[in-house]
Amino acid sequence: MIPYLAGTYLGSKSVFNIGAGIIYQKDAMWRLDDNNQTINENMLHLSADVFYDAPIGKEGQAISLYGNITHFDFGKDYFRNAGTMNPANGNNNPNILNGAGVAFPMYGTGTTLYAQAGYKFKNNLIGNTTLMPYFALQHSNYEKFNDAVNFWDMGVNWLLSGHTSKFTISYQNRPVYDVAGDKITTKGAVLAQYQVNFN
């Protein structure tokens, strides 16, 4: 549903899927202790998800739902910022933990809940095209942070030719943290993009 990948069958068939996974790697991560000694730590991730995608009307309407819970263990206080299509590469405020631009702590040691929901309107809603509004939410509790990470994204896909050609406009809201791990504010961003997929 989000603009970067297909993520839905757009009502062409009904799908219900439940999945689970585990990743373990001995000594995958390292950090320095208070005496600057290297400590190796094992990496362990546990995850489960559910996906439902189905037509719900006689004119091509469809619903798409996805949910995931993941426990990440990268080692003590690990986190990583990510900024998809980030337009900035610097930050002049040393008290901001997020880094530059639209980055936020997307991954870290702790538990993350993620959900997406979308609704595709009938076929040929606007000429030969249609719309699919969506909403996505990430809620994470990381060891490093004193406050939960809540990132949300809502928008609408204008499906010019299914996933082959689509235009998306969305609004994203991300938290901003100081170096102590406290949330100090939130920032928003409006995104517009066009995607062409060559099959």
Overview of this structure, please?
- The protein has one domain (15-196).
- The protein has 199 residues and is mainly beta.
- The two termini are 18 Å apart.
- The protein has an eight-stranded antiparallel beta sheet with strand order 1-2-3-6-7-8-9-10, with no helix packed on it. It has a two-stranded antiparallel ribbon with strand order 4-5.
- It has strands at 15-32, 38-55, 62-73, 79-82, 104-108, 110-120, 130-142, 149-161, 165-177, 183-196.
- This is Short chain amide porin.
Layout of strands and helices, then pairs:
Layout: E1 15-32, E2 38-55, E3 62-73, E4 79-82, E5 104-108, E6 110-120, E7 130-142, E8 149-161, E9 165-177, E10 183-196
Antiparallel strand pairs: 1-2, 2-3, 3-6, 4-5, 6-7, 7-8, 8-9, 9-10
Q: Notable features of this structure?
A:
two-stranded antiparallel sheet, mainly beta, 8-stranded antiparallel β-sheet, globular, 199 residues
Lateral strand order in the biggest sheet = 1-2-3-6-7-8-9-10
Shape: globular
SS element count, helices: 0
Count every beta strand, where a strand is a DSSP E run of 2 or more residues. Answer: 10
* Distance, first to last CA: 18 Å
Major sheet: 8 strands, antiparallel
Write a concise synopsis of the structure shown.
The protein is mainly β and 199 residues long.
